Every structure is written in C-alpha cells, then in structure tokens.
Amino acid sequence: MKITRKSFFKGIALGTISLPFLIRAFGGRNFAQEDSTGAPNVLTAKQYRWKMVTTWPPNFPILGEACNKYAELVEKMSAGRMRIRVYGANELVPALETFDTVRTGGAEIGSGAAYYWAGKAPSAQFFASVPFGMNAQQLNAWVIGGGGLQLWEELYRDFNLAPMPGGNTGVQMGGWFNREINSLEDLKGLKMRIPGLGGKVLEKAGGAPVLLAGGEIYTGLERGVIDATEWLGPFHDILMGFHEIAKYYYTPGWHEPGTMLEFIVNKELYDKLPADLKAILQTAAAWSSNWVLSQMEAKNAEALATLLEKGVAIRKFPREVLGQLRQYTEEVVADMAANDPFSRKVYESYDSFRKKAANYSLITEKEFYDKIQKEGELDLG
Ligand code: CA
Question: What is the pLDDT of residues 30-63, one digit of tens each?
Fold first, then answer.
C-alpha cells in the first residue's frame, strides 16, 4: 500500500491504519507520549494479568459463560494490556470463598450474586434478590438509576470491594414439586431445597427448607429426601432434568423475582488502575448485564416451549398462599432491618423505590401483559 499524506489522514479517520505500522513508519516518537526512559508508552504500558474467581461451576451456561466473555472483551478493549483468567467454583477456591478471596487480593476480580454474602452483610441481599421484591427491570432501575449502586458501593467499601451489576436471571420459576400446593396446609412439612430468605419464609409457613448442593438435588428429589426444589428457570431446569422426576412445575418464583448478578473488584487494586482500564471493566460489566438477561429471557422462552411439548404440568401458586408468604416475608425483612442498621438504610431506599416502580409498572407493563399480549397466549387460568 502506497501511503500518501491524503490517504494517511483518511486512514487515521477511518481507523484502518494499524498502530504497529504507524510506529514502524514514524519511529513512534512522533505519536506516542514518552515515559522517563524515552520509550513510547504504547510499547511499555503496564500489563495486567488478573484472576477472576466465580461462584458458578466452570463454564456454567449463561452465568459462567458471561464471565468468559467478560474476560475476552476486557482483553480486546484493552488491546491485551489486561488479561483475566476465569476460574469456576472450586478451580481456585470454593464458590462461597469468592468474596473473601477478592477482598483480600487472592484474586483481583470475582463474579457471583450478593445474597451469597448475607452472613457477612445481611443488606447485600437487596442487591441480588429478596422475596416479593423487584423484578429485573425494576431492580436495574433502582441500582443504576435510583441510588441503589451508591448504597451498594458504600456497603462493599468496608470490605475493600467495588461492586458492578453484571446481569439478572429475570423472574425465576417457583420450582418443581411432587405435591400440589392448593392451600397453606400443603406447605406444612414440605421439604424443599430453597436457600436464603425464601427458605426462612417457607419455615415460617411450616415448611422445612433443606440445603443441598446443586449436584445432590436431582437424587434428593428422586428419592423423596425432598418434596420440592427451586433452581432457576426452564432453560437451566431442563439441564438439571427435574422434569423427569417431578410432577408439577410451579410459578412464579416469589422467592427470586429477579436476581441480580455482580462483578466484584478488589477496591485497592481498582483504585490504582488507569482511567481507561476502569472504564473498560465498567463497560464490560454493563455489557454483561444486558447479555445475561437477554440470554436468560431468550433461552427460557425456548425451553418453556420444550417443556410444554413434553406435557409438563405447570401450576400457579394460589393467590391466598402467595398472600401469606408475602406477609411472612415482610416479617423476615422487618427482623433483618431491626437487627442491622445498614439493612434498614438500604431497605428504606429499596422499598420506597419499589412502591413507585410498582405504580409505574401497573399502568405500563401490567397493562401490556393484561391487555395487549395476553390474547391467544398460554392461559393457565
Ligand atoms: Ca433460584
């Protein structure tokens, strides 16, 4: 290619002339700022080799994949200055050590969901999901547009962490049951795999929440060790095979109406990063937020069609049952707020936003679902 002055400047404008070419052609010094050694920064820029620990099994569909793609994006956007090696749960540390590993610098960045850290900071749960709380759209609105992120940053600052929203599962399903839930009586003695606040609420209703690791749920349900389990939504649930061994698939996931995922960065290291790499990490997280929710919605819609073809019996929780569970949830959350001042502060922000968002959703989204979309679609009565 013969470079004329005219084609050169045109090339710059279009970004079609490679940086190595420019450095070769012009000795670099005319273009890149020099550091104290006189070498162009572009060649001596500090290289970052980071580790990401995650709460997800290696390459876990969508949630783990998002971490791999995050790392690829960061590497591309930084032209290789930052490379992140992603570790699934137990590859470097167990899933639930992600928070402490990043906080103490054993890894620079992590991926998970804030409710896993409820034992360290109860209010963290508001930044993942609370029963009868906000859905993905509303939670994104609160975190990104309604002051939630500032509270999240304030909470995590004490742990030397910088949080970034990283995705959302959307409204989860209520779970797989081997007994029908027609009244509150049917929850009494129900042995269900349901973690977190949802488990506490079930306990108040007379049920027995059971803790089982992901790999133990299928056999637990098959052998009657548990009567029910929640997991995620149709796409991930089919992969677990629950439709082969459970009678009913209940909706909605009252316990997880939209679980937000997070990236956490060691704050001391984050603060030292140059501004462009900070922006790259933020931008990759924003990309992940959008990608995860979009994938969840797309794959769940496809998987629901598959489950319907298989004749899976989908059931709705009765209104009376949900009403009582909501009541118990309010008691559980009030307890939490009474015992932890920061939970109280976050809850006040969360709940005041939730009420406004609910009103807005009622006159927009709900009208859409009830009046525009409902006709001709799946009707469970
Ligand atoms: Ca779940």
Answer: 334 444 444 445 556 899 999 999 999 999 999 9
Using the mean position of ligand 1's atoms as its centre, give its distance from the Cα of residue 68 in Å: 22
Distance in angstroms (rounded) separating the CA atoms of residues 35 and 56: 41
* Percentage of residues in the chain having pLDDT higher than 90: 83
Q: For residue 172, how far is its CA from the centre of ligand 1 (angstroms)?
A: 6
Confidence (pTM): 0.87
Would you state the CATH architecture of domain 46-171+259-296? 3-Layer(aba) Sandwich (3.40)
pLDDT digits (tens, 9 = 90+) for 70-85: 999 999 999 999 999 9
Same topology between domain 46-171+259-296 and domain 175-257+310-344: yes
14-41 in b/e burial notation, b at 16+ Cβ within 10 A?
A: eeebeeeebbeeeebeeebeeeeeeebe
Beta-ladder partners of 316:
251
Q: Where are the alpha helices (DSSP H) in 169-274?
A: 196-204, 217-222, 234-240, 267-272
Cis ω for the linkage preceding 234 (within 30 of 0): no
pLDDT for 16 beyond 60: no
* Sign of the CA dihedral with 26 first, then 74, 90, and 164 last: positive
Domain layout of the chain by residue ranges: 5-42, 46-171+259-296, 175-257+310-344
Distance 334 CA to ligand 1 centre (A): 22
Give the distance (Å) from ligand 1 centre to CA of residue 216: 15
Rounded Cα distance between 112 and 260, Å, is 9
Mean pLDDT for 362-372 is: 93
DSSP symbols for 290-304: HHHHHHHHHHHHHHH
Contact between residue 262 and residue 164 where contact means Cβ atoms under 8 Å apart: yes
Closest alpha carbon to 116 in 174, 159, 61, 170: 159
CATH number of 175-257+310-344: 3.40.190.10
**Distance from Cα 202 to the centre of ligand 1, integer Å:** 14
Contact 85, 50 (CB under 8 A): yes
Q: Which residue has the tokens 């052998």?
A: 223
Q: What is the mean pLDDT of the chain?
A: 90
Residue pair 231/237 in contact (Cβ under 8 Å)? The answer is yes
